[in-house]
């Protein structure tokens, strides 16, 4: 029963979020461009809430105050790992540009540009698969701790995956794929979430003492995505009205997670 829940909710976090992102295909582009930052603001709050109100407190409760220092080290280590992962992704993403200065003429420039777009599409698929696998591990660790925590974690994963998938879909289409093919591949990468979840269920289920540290690592991932990945983009807008909406939506994301965590724990 627990494994079935892990599979279903990891699929919701990985595959369903890609399906929900398709809604943006039917929204006129100018309106979609205005709506997407609102989803990002809400996702930022959901990630912060899940990390600081659900995952980290649960990790401390399970490990005990005596191990709080070790959990802090795990949190720092997790932030470092996600920093390095992002650096590697950026490095691989920028590598195709190395050939650009050596091309001559419009034809050569166009060829190099097309090559970079195709490379970006491949990198998106690889990066999405790894990212979804990690999401599956996070969801499994949460469910192994308690089903209510698993539900809250799935909500946070889905919240940040929807705007993420919209951006990835645009990159795949720009790389030359049809909209249907881009959608199919986007959905396929969601299967990595289920694979990661099942692998974590098998591994963590045989080493339950690792669970508090897995939760702290997951909290580090959520914090890094929110603080390093999403908030800098939100800070580009200095408009008072837009900033006020961002604050309200971030607070709403935190509030939804807090409410869900309280209701799930009853």
Could you explain the architecture of this structure?
It is a single chain. This protein has 266 residues and is mainly α. The protein has one domain. Helix content is 85%, strand content 0%. The longest helix is centred in the middle third of the chain and has 41 residues. The protein is globular and about 50 Å long.
Report a brief summary of the structure.
The protein is about 85% helix and about 0% strand. It has helices at about 1-20, 30-65, 70-95, 105-145, 145-175, 180-190, 190-205, 210-235, 240-265. The two termini are about 20 Å apart.
SSE blueprint:
Layout: H1 2-21, H2 29-63, H3 68-94, H4 105-145, H5 147-174, H6 179-189, H7 191-204, H8 211-234, H9 240-265
Key features of this structure:
single chain, 266 residues, 9 helices, globular
Q: Characterize the overall form.
A: globular
Sheet-strand content, in percent, reads: under 5%
Main beta-sheet annotation: none
The SSE order reads HHHHHHHHH
Number of strands: 0
């Amino acid at each position: 029963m627990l494994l079935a829940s892990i599979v279903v909710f990891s699929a919701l976090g990985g595959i369903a979020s890609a399906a929900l992102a398709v809604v943006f295909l039917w929204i006129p582009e100018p309106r979609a461009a205005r709506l997407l930052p609102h989803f990002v603001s809400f996702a930022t709050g959901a990630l912060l809430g899940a990390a600081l109100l659900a995952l980290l407190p649960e990790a401390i409760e399970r490990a005990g105050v005596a191990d709080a220092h070790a959990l802090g080290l795990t949190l720092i280590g997790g932030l470092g790992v996600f920093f390095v992962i992002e650096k590697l992704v950026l490095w691989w993403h920028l590598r195709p540009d190395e050939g650009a200065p050596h091309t001559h003429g419009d034809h050569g420039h166009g060829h190099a540009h097309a090559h970079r777009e195709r490379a970006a599409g491949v990198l998106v698929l690889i990066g999405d698969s790894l990212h979804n696998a990690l999401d599956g591990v996070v969801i499994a660790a949460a469910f192994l701790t308690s089903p209510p925590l698993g539900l809250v974690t799935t909500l946070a994963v889905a919240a940040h995956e929807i705007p993420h998938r919209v951006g990835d879909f645009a990159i795949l289409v720009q790389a030359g794929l049809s909209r249907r093919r881009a959608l199919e591949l986007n959905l396929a990468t969601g299967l990595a979430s289920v694979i990661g979840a099942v692998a974590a269920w098998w591994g963590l289920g045989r080493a339950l003492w690792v669970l508090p540290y897995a939760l702290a690592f997951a909290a580090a991932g959520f914090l890094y995505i929110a603080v390093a990945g999403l908030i800098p983009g939100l800070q580009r807008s200095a408009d008072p009205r837009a900033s006020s909406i961002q604050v309200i939506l971030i607070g709403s994301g935190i509030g939804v997670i807090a409410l869900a965590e309280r209701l799930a724990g009853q």
